[in-house]
Amino acid sequence: MESHEIYLPERFEEASLKEKIFFSAIELFAEFGLNGARMEQIAEKAGTTKRMVVYHFKNKELLYIQVLEYVYTQIRSAERRLNLADLPPVEAMVQLVEWTFDFHANNPDFIRIICMENMQRGRFVKESTWLREVNRSALTLLEDVLSRGQAAHLFSKSINAKDVHRLISSFSFHHVANSYTFSNLFEEGADPAQNTAHYREMAVKVVLRYIGP
User: Fold this and answer.
1) DSSP-assigned letters across all residues of 38-79
2) Are the C-beta atoms of residues 186 and 88 closer than 8 Å to each other?
3) DSSP characters over the chain
4) What is the chain's pLDDT, residue by residue, as a tens digit (213 residues)?
């Protein structure tokens, strides 16, 4: 596995040793963060030794950077595969919001890793030109949808891609990052699946209302 281009099998059991180490690192960094996760823990979870973790990834910081790059690559690559340019602008926006919400809900470890990076005040994102480059596609994709909608007088001309991206992300990210506190404080006994469907629909409505003419 080379940095930036990491492809993991669907099942841990089908992975090579290096991939098992990487699977384990994702889970442990999501649970404990960079500072809390130990190389020994990663090795034990992968069924190997610390020496082999060091052999494949050198040190914990380099392994963490590759995990962070993997997380963002997965989000942005899957986003580009939506082929939104083939859809009318309103339909494209609905699909993007729904997909983003679902991706966050279905990949909670990815979101927790990003939370952990924010707790470190974006230390590695700040230092990585590559991470900034790979995430630029999120705005490029939105700019195309918005410009087509604006040209057809379907969207307000005063909106911009960065603000819409922030709005979509805020709904999607909050649903995962604050799920335990929010549900325990305000939704005790509620059906989680129904809540997810409700907030997904709510996200679509809010975004469409915000971008409307």
Assistant:
1) -HHHHHHHHTS-HHHHHHHHSSHHHHHHHHHHHHHHHHHHHH
2) no
3) -BTTB----SSGGGS-HHHHHHHHHHHHHHHHHHHH--HHHHHHHHTS-HHHHHHHHSSHHHHHHHHHHHHHHHHHHHHHTT-GGGS-HHHHHHHHHHHHHHHHHH-HHHHHHHHHHHHTTTHHHHH-HHHHHHHHHHHHHHHHHHHHHHHTT-S-TT--HHHHHHHHHHHHHHHHHTHHHHHHHH-TT--HHHHHHHHHHHHHHHHHHHH--
4) 344 555 565 666 666 888 899 989 999 999 999 999 999 999 999 999 999 999 999 999 999 999 999 999 989 999 989 989 999 999 999 999 999 999 999 999 999 999 999 988 988 888 888 888 889 999 999 999 999 999 999 999 999 999 999 999 999 999 999 998 999 999 888 898 999 999 999 999 999 999 999
Tokens, residue 187: 């939704």
Q: Which residue has the tokens 């909106």?
A: 159
